[in-house]
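Good morning,

Both structures are done.
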Amino acid sequence: MNVTVFGATGAIGSLTVTELLERGRQVTAYARNAQKVPRSWGDRVRVVVGEMSDPDAIDSAVAGADAVVSALGPSLDRKATGLPLVAGTGHILAAMKRHDVRRYIGHATPAILDPQEKPTPITRLIRFLPRTFMRRAYDEITGMTGQAMGSGLDWTVVRFIAPKDTPKQDRVRVGFFGTDKLGFAVSRADIAAFTAAQVDDDTYVGRAPAISN
């Protein structure tokens, strides 16, 4: 199976690439900065360098894929402007449709509700804070995710609240707010492992499971 990963050199994206390689997948990594590509990947990973505003480079990265993972996350820099990841996600989804790639896995926070969820105190809080204090980042995450959910593709959105740089934990909780017991903190390594597992698992197609430790 061939998997294309966007945001591949980020904290969670790079771990996801490693997880996919360990699972025997062929990986194409889309990177905006070639200098951030880990040397440990060697020739095991096909790297495509380009901006999220470059539809041709994105198309090249998606061509030949069986699944696409977007580990993209909005910048929290208050000096950042515009919504480049919203436009970039549009290019990704368009390329997937051109190349008949059905499976899409993305990342978000509980500011985004699963289609079958009702708001809870936690989801209201997680939505209120960025909408009030980090509006541009909030608009990016909602814009990216809304496009994926409305794309008609086989999407899954993995949601989490407080990612940590800790090893994989013994307990991983996966579920939905209002029905399942979920925590706040979660290891980035566990997010990556769960994300990688979704590429050929249809359990959460059309759903947005939340993950915590």
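Second structure follows.
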Amino acid sequence: MTAMLRAYNVSLELPTEVHKTGRKGYSDLLATLSGSVRYRTTILSGINFEAVDGDRIGIMGLNGAGKTTLLRVLNGAYTPTAGVVRTEGARQSLLNPLLGFAEYASVAENIFLRGTAMGLRYRQLKAIASDILEFAGLTDRAEYPLYTLSSGQRMRLGFAITTAVQPDILLMDEWLSTGDAAFVARARKRMKDRFEGSRIVVLASHSTSLLRDTCNKALVLDKGRMHFFGATADALEAYRDIVSQASSEERDAAMKSDPVLFGSTQGVVERVRATSDSLEVVGWAMDDQGREAAVVCLEFAGQKHLLESFERVQRDDVNDYLGKRGGKYGFRLALALEQPVAARELVEELRVSVGRNVSRLGTPLSLVRASIVETE
């Protein structure tokens, strides 16, 4: 039998309750006493894709894009509001190893409770229970109540149960590695075995390098909507474009979780000068391909300004530092201002990023300790 996973125009709406106060915000107990209004919020919409034997599909998106929610729809935890999910083959998800435990049941009993919830048969669980306990390092605690275990021991138990059998379709939310060094090594080996042994894998991750190395296809989510589905290389470009257009906070979060998202951009801001009608910035930068920056982005006061036309300066000190024989890596630019900017705002808010194009902006350049910030 072949494995198959298909999502046909899947959408998901979830109820959200908001307290009714008759005014914006809330005031002491008024929100509780005034009752609530239930709304339905669209979490996912327009999800269409198909996975067949051999497919390794990555799911990309900013925080809150709906990656984990989509996995929960695919594993059956959520029923789509519209559309349908079809599967052929045994399905298993590795999302939260701690779900489904009973605090006052024994460790051994929890193996059967959690395993049954996963769809495993009693006879099957009875045959593998001792192996699960051994893998988790909890053989001597089989009859202990679950609440006596530490958080690390619980995580090991949940991981051991969830990965005890080889599924046809594996749904994963990031790579899991928890516990002491010895357990982490065993967990990584088992995940590698399960990953390679599955006919279909759907993996949600912030690590674009992991997805690039392990997945042949990728799905990009943007605010719950499917933005792209296709080859991983093309999906990465689509995701980078979303990140570049996102707010500075969202972009920082994405690049913090995946520092190589836009490669290694180098440079510093050395001088900032603001007059009543313009902002001047001086520094140097090299893009992720070791070339002169083609685009400079200035962000402050909640606005983003993209400049492709600015003065490029050849500097021997920068070339020596970068090990370059030539090239104009220095830059000097001026931006017209509609209203004056205070020095404090520049120091706290100004962010300068460079890149090859508007969809490949790197992390913000450092404002070096010796930087000069002037206002007139």
